[in-house]
Amino acid sequence: MMPDGYSSSKKTDDIREDVCGQVQQAACAALSMTRLRCILRGVDLKTYLFLLVIVPISILGIYFQSQKITCFLRPLWQSPPKPFVNIPHYYHPNVSMENLCKLHGWGIRKYPRRVFDAVVFNNEVDILTIRWKELDPYITQFILLESNSTFSGLPKPYFFATNRDQFKFMEPRLTYGTIGGRFRKGENPFVEEAYQRVAIDQLLRIAGIQDDDLLIMSDVDEIPSGHTINLLRWCDDIPPILHLHLRNYLYSFEFPWDHRSWRATVHRYRMGKTRYAHFRQTDYLLSDAGWHCSFCFRRISEFIFKMKAYSHNDRVRSPHFLNPKRIQDIICKGTDLYDMLPEEYTFKQIIGQLGPMTHSYSAIHLPAYLLNNADKYKYLMPGNCRRESG
């Protein structure tokens, strides 16, 4: 007790400090609100609109169009690959094989090499038929591997096994194998693709391939011309590995696609050295050596299946992309299924390829079996963009 009758305690001091602190906080909050009101009084309606509408829409636009933005800015972050060494390609049916080899700077063999054609099969029954008919006179052994899994890990039937009766014409020269998919969710589809391609090496050994035999490595829809393979099997001193420059088409042979196709290769096989692959393996590129007809399907359902199945399935950014009416409209217009910009390395190339592809009404220099059976494969011919729905 203090002399003047008042008492003192620590608790009383704490209460006083708390009250003061609360008062100060309230004053600070009031001051902050006052400052905010002052700031907002200086902002006009257009700025409100920009902050509350334009900015969120812009952020959403960037999110949904990120793939396009990335493609357009590709020249800033990725340099073009090393240019190929282009080998001129000479051919005419009335020129002898000896002269054709000489024109390429190669010698002529006493007898042709054996040729093995190896593919991983998904569901392209019609294109496989056209491919094998084109190559039939020159192939020693056809090798086909099929899985019950797509590259993206989706289960699928063995389509070739179901349609095998259509390929009786080459059954005696067929080495056919199946491989079970691993079905690993979330895995990069290119891992499954590599797993299936590596399995072909075992099939090749079963088929009896030997040193210096020719091996064609390409997807089913990458079709070397018959005369190209005949040239390479008869000529001596050809490069150990050759990439094939293929005329590129999309949806049918009506739409030449200005995107270079070079992944198909022909190898002079080396036991223990040659491995089946689908990437750049040499600098040498043989010009005008065949056709690449990508997404060339008879039915809309086949388009949808491939869009979900192959290694670039991440490009399906919305269920709307798989709408059958949308796909049919795109096929007839010649625009991109994935609404993407051209994947090129310079702004000039990107801008030059914007918009729909140019229609071509020429059916010159197409696979012979296709032209001999034009009624059956009408959907692949110029001027026939409508597809079956089933």
Automatic annotation (TrEMBL):
It comes from the Eukaryota. One of its GO terms (biological process) is N-acetylglucosamine metabolic process. Keywords: Membrane, Transmembrane, Transmembrane helix. One of its GO terms (cellular component) is membrane. Coiled coil: none annotated. Pfam families: Glyco_transf_17. GO terms for molecular function: beta-1,4-mannosylglycoprotein 4-beta-N-acetylglucosaminyltransferase activity. The keyword Transmembrane helix applies. InterPro entries: Glyco_trans_17. This is Beta-1,4-mannosyl-glycoprotein 4-beta-N-acetylglucosaminyltransferase. The chain crosses the membrane at residues 45-64.
